[in-house]
Amino acid sequence: MTKHRIGLVLAATALSGSISIAAMAQTEIEIWVGGEPGTANVYDDLAAAYMAANPDVQINVTKVGSDLFNPVLVPSLSGGEGPDVFMYGTGPGQPAAIINGGLVADLTPYYRDYGWDPLIPDSIESTTSSDGRLWAVGNEVENTAMFYNQAIFDQLGLSVPETWSDFESTVAALIEAGYETPIGLGAADRWPISHWQSMLFGRFASPAGVDEVMFGDGAWTEQAFVDASALLQEMTEEGYFGPNPVANGYAEIMDAFWAGDIPMTFTGPWIVPGAVESLGDGLADFGTFQLPPMADGQAIHPTEDIGSGFYVNANSEHLDLSADILNFFFFNDDSRLMLLNNGTIPIGSLTELLPDSTLPAITADLRAQIDSYRENGTIHAFLDTVTPASMTNVTYDGLQAIMLGVMTPEQFVEAIQAEWEIAKADGAILMPGGVADN
Amino acid sequence: MAATSRRWSPGRRKRQAWLTAGLFLLPAIALYLVFAFIPTIEVFEYSLTRWDGISPNREWVGLGNYDRLFGDRIFWEAFFNTVEWTAIIVVINVGLGVVLAAVLARKIKGRIFFQTCMFIPVIQAPITTAIIWRWMYQPNGAINEGLSAIGLGFLTTPWLGDLTTALPALAIAHSWSTLGLSIVIFLAGLQAVDDELYDAAKIDGATPIQAFWYITLPALRPVTAVVFVLTATAAFKAFDLIWGTTQGGPIRATEILATYMYKRGVLENNYGYGSAVAVALLVIVTLAMAVYLYMQARRDD
Questions:
Q1: Is the Cβ–Cβ distance between A147 and A286 less than 8 Å?
Q2: What are the tens digits of pLDDT across the range A254-311?
Q3: Are strands A129-130 and A264-267 parallel, antiparallel or unpaired?
Q4: DSSP run (H or E) holding A31
Q5: How distant is the alpha carbon of residue A142 from its chain centre?
Q6: CB of A404 within 8 Å of any CB in chain B?
Q7: Would you call A221 exposed, middle or buried from its count of C-beta atoms within 10 A (0-12, 13-18, 19+)?
Q8: Residue A62 forms beta bridges with which residues?
Q9: CA distance B200 to B211
Q10: How far apart, in Å, do the first and last CA atoms of chain B sit?
């Protein structure tokens, strides 16, 4: 009996010792992610999958609210601390500051070693690279579209509009049926208006017209941008967005949309994972469509941009491991399928993944629409992320002013052009990107 | 005997008192230096540079940021909004605060309950206050629904979406969240008022309003100065409530200096200019408080 006890004690001691040695041997990686409720959870699953394949690695995923990201992340990075890997915006605004400050690692060697090139489209590479070097891996492709309540449309005998005239009739029918707000727009939060602006600017100016301003000698004051702004103002005045769009927040609008109080809203697939959780099968009542051409000769250009970038902290003690985790998350087929099934569209070709995916029908349908119009050329979904932050504030204020009718379309484009010129002179605008060959 | 007289000499006792006081004050002074004074000096130093807040190199621009500030139309818009915002909050917190304190000082039924209700918003996180009032002020929120329910539907408006109502509406929300503290301070001041004064006034035939006007208000003058300074400084520094509701919008109707500083400094990574706005805010608050306290002191003399 005594021998047994001694044996047990020795075994327990040995076991606890081996557990603590194993724990000590584990390398810990901190990852900070943001995003809509539902979408960020997929990173827990990806981390679990990586840890299952690599038991010596412990990944801690922390979800940080978007408002807290900057005030918390930047000081911690500046202080030589912070997470090993983090999600952050891309484009010419704040990312430029953390890149110039030497706070993020150059991912170019990993890009070459792991062979990421085929999976990163050029348009995305341009927003995640500068000076020929890759600084971030885009986490997902995001498109915007008109989301609509199929049940309301069926009830009123409405179908998806194919011409702008059809669209106007649809809105009129909805108003007549008592829907005070035919198209929900949380303009109080400002950035949702920018989705409309991005789409309208791209539609009226075409992808080449936008690129001419972004990377050439074009100006935001050209007639196409005035016409696009004028249409936004006209739609507001005619009640397309309800009586008080500037008083409505995005969250409240989305609640009203899912509740069936608002028939349409222009948004993106980031809302789908949360809706799958809250609505379940009820999500089948909703669909998406691309807005028809708004003027003669205009083509349907789908919107597309990346959601966020994943960066590696330059001060991380585990640069190689962090890059390996990014490789696993975004360039491994099983992980990409996991992202897809969560409703998060990973970058790169999905041809081989889609047949095996359980992508929510609404997202798959949206993806199919984008692909069917892709040959017309894609336009930016979020102009506010590819233009300087100083211009973003002027744009947001101007868009609210347009909607409140206190600024003309001409004044609006002049205001953003003025800020654009300042940023251009300061070298703060997006430069044509791309990773250097060597 | 000689040793005893040395121990109790007045000079030595005075030095000991100073030493004791100094030792007790030392931690507070050290904390103040580290967490308030030095950062303030640093902000002033940043304001003389062009800096993105991240890179190790700061470009010295001297008073360039201040020069730009004086010609910045949005800065002045934010400044005048801040003045209007502070004025509304001070009027409510001082005016309504003193009246409610006078009412609650009387032995009315449910006094503790009402005092507690008034104070609960003070202990709430400002962002919670923002969420509550953002919901209340929605076009179909509680305020408009309430107005419609009592037959005042003609008064409904998109409170935070209207250029004229957004700032006053948020100022009221800010007052709601800070009024309880003003009331508590006024109540403390009322404890010092001799009840015999009210009794004498009653015998002389004074009405409750006359008693309030001629006894309560003059007696509360020193406390009013405290409430004024606390309320005004809190209003000048307010950020969370506005950021959590309108982010300075619609357009710039609720843009105050604190939100403008955050936009320019943090969101645009322009820490040099953002720091100049912060220094301007500090100077404005200090000057306003100094002028008020000086006038108050002269009046008391």
A1: yes
A2: 999 999 999 999 999 888 888 888 898 899 999 999 999 999 889 999 998 888 899 9
A3: unpaired
A4: strand A27-33
A5: 5
A6: yes
A7: middle
A8: A32
A9: 10
A10: 49
Report the length, in residues, of chain B. 301
Q: How high is the ipTM of this complex?
A: 0.82
What is the rounded distance in angstroms from the CA atom of residue A82 to the CA atom of residue A96? 18
Tokens of A274: 């949360």
Query: CA nearest A410: which of A197, A223, A187?
Result: A223
pLDDT over 60 at A18, yes or no: no
pTM: 0.85
A193 close to A403: Cβ distance less than 8 angstroms: yes
User: What is the per-residue pLDDT across B144-188, written as a single tens digit (0 to 9) for each?
Assistant: 999 999 999 999 999 999 999 999 999 999 999 999 999 999 999
CA distance to partner chain B, nearest, from residue A99 (Å)? 9
Q: Which residue of A has its CA nearest to B156?
A: A244
- How far apart are alpha carbons B223 and B149 in whole angstroms? 40
Between chains, do B138 and A393 touch, taking CB under 8 Å as contact? Answer: no
Query: Contacts for B136-141 with beta carbons within 8 Å, 24 or more apart?
Result: B136/B173, B137/A247, B137/B169, B137/B173, B137/B245, B138/A247, B138/A248, B138/A249, B138/A252, B139/A243, B139/A244, B139/A247, B139/A248
What is the CA A277 to chain-centroid distance, rounded?
Answer: 20
Question: How close, in Å, is residue B132 to chain A by CA atoms?
Answer: 13
The Cα B156–Cα B144 span in angstroms is 5
Half-sphere exposure of A117 (CA within 13 A, CB side): 11
Q: How distant is the Cα of B16 from the closest Cα of chain A, in angstroms?
A: 43
Nearest-10 crossing angle of helices A389-404, A223-237: 50
Whether the CB of A101 is below 8 Å from some CB of chain B: the reply is yes
Are B269 and A389 an interchain contact pair (Cβ–Cβ within 8 Å)?
yes
